[in-house]
Design brief:
This protein folds into two domains: about 120 residues, Rossmann fold, CATH 3.40.50; about 70 residues, no CATH class. Helix 3 runs antiparallel to helix 5. It has ten helices and five strands, in the order E-H-E-H-H-H-H-E-H-E-H-H-H-E-H. It is of the alpha/beta class. The protein is globular. The termini are close together. Strands 2-3-1-4-5 form a five-stranded parallel sheet, sandwiched between helices.
Length: about 200
């Protein structure tokens, strides 16, 4: 089975692209979704996070206070690395176990921080969703209700646009609306089926 890593900067359109691939019946494994699953109440990762960061990072309902944690890790590189040390091995094991259960010509793993966390050893190809930085800032500020300054802090923790493009085997340009996105996905779907059959 061909394994495609789908990545891109924040608010580049990764989820939209993944959803279009899913309409073709392509299995999608999303690391962001898994990251939320492994920190649900009762999960060992949540206990490790609270042990490290403190009880103040829990909401009244026992769930992780994501907003508070996000503010902390984007202002403290050491804490971010510690959090990654807790989450990444667990996320990776979950991905491998889900891949082992699949039977399809190809599958897509959505890995937002693919290049930052160097997880390309699981992959056959890297697909980058590319959009202008100004558009990323606008979309993220609107979606997450945060300031432009906060968005720029998040962007500063990610590799730059050119580095991502240089690492890509395939690129989807997200600048001309959903119809154009769908056309690019349709073309890549055929390409991946052909590669998988080769």
């Amino acid at each position: 089975m061909l394994i495609i890593g789908l990545t891109g900067g924040i608010s580049s359109g990764k989820s939209t692209v993944a959803n279009i691939f899913a309409q073709y019946g392509v299995p999608i494994i999303d690391m962001d979704v898994i990251a939320r699953e492994v920190v649900e109440p009762g999960q060992p990762a949540l206990e490790d996070i609270i042990r490290l960061f403190g009880q103040g990072y829990l909401l009244n309902n026992g769930e992780l206070n994501r907003a508070m944690l996000r503010d902390t890790i984007f202002n403290d590189t050491g804490k971010r690395k510690q959090l990654e040390g807790i989450l990444h091995p667990r996320i990776r094991e979950t991905v491998k176990s889900r891949l082992a259960q699949l039977h399809a010509p190809y599958a897509i793993i959505v890995i937002p921080l693919l290049l930052e966390t160097r997880q390309d050893d699981l992959l056959d190809r890297i697909l980058v969703v590319d959009t202008a930085v100004e558009e990323q800032i606008r979309r993220t500020a609107n979606r997450d209700h945060i300031s432009e300054k906060q968005v720029k802090k998040i962007l500063a923790t990610q590799v730059d646009r050119q580095t991502r493009l240089d690492a890509a085997d395939d690129i989807i340009r997200n600048s001309d609306g959903i119809d154009e996105l769908s056309r690019q996905v349709a073309s890549l779907h055929q390409h991946y089926l052909a590669l998988a059959a080769a």
